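Continuing the series of single-chain predictions for the mutant panel. This is the parent chain; the variants come on the following pages.
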Amino acid sequence: MEDLDTLVLRTALSWQAEGLPVVLVTVARTWGSSPRPPGSLMAINGRGETVGSVSGGCIEDDLIQRIREGGVQAACATETPAVLRYGISADEAHRFGLPCGGTVELVLEPVSAYSRLDTLLQACQQRRSTERRLDLRTGRVELREGRRDGVPQLTDSHLCTYLGPQARLILIGAGDLSRFMCQMALSLGFEVIVCDPREEHRAGWSLDGVMVSHEMPDDLILRLRPDARTAVVALTHDPKLDDLALIDALQSEAFFVGAIGSRHNSAQRRERLRTHFDLSEHMLQALHGPAGLYIGSKTPAEIALSIMAEVVAVKNGVQLSAPVQVAAGKSRLKPTGHLTLTAPACGV
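Parent structure:
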């Protein structure tokens, strides 16, 4: 499944190829509370069809009405990009569903050859982070290498936005747990790869939208070279498959590297990696194990939910404090001002 930015770009290009007028809408700035963050994309064609979103729906309805009543030029006012602000007054905030009187500033861009959406889409599909600089006076676009997490910048003459690869999840091991994780990850917009060299485990395992590899996991990690938008989770409980892949993943730019297992087995894994593979303490601290947030999970679906919740939290920059170990090997929430979520003891 594509992430939303890729879907918006691909759909806008498809509409343009059909000869339809298309407007690309970008959330440039927000004040107060707003339903969608800066950088969010949406496209509208001349028939009023949309993909993506910039609000909870009310702003989209207003833009659709503008286009249906007067065409693309009515939405943009000119053939060049236009800046539109919603939510300035309390009445507008209420009308457009902006909570707490929030304000959203949008850039509406008539899509043309100058927009370079085809090149931008190709860069995203090749997992290259890109800075897109739109000239508001001419509609011309410059593309250059950029960081994925840049904040959009709007001036009187230009809009700079940052786009990049969709989040990717690499799972080591095919099974019920990986199936549930794949389903959740796909719905969250992740690109998903499952790696399992064991033919008996791969037999009958398939899921639409998921690539299945029969390589040795460490070979796959070395080949793909995980970037800062990639998470790697080992699910096999087999050190022969998990350990080497985890070592390579920990030395990559992956934003999340984790493995399932009990607390006892996780401690043994760290000791193996420290003793036999000479991994530094810094690398070992980056390993999430047991992977997952504590939600009392017992079934494969619940364990998948706990792991995906931790992956998403780390991806979004949420600080998770370490659990406090108490009697009987259980853990409780630490009474601090930080969000503290502890890992489930899955496996044996």
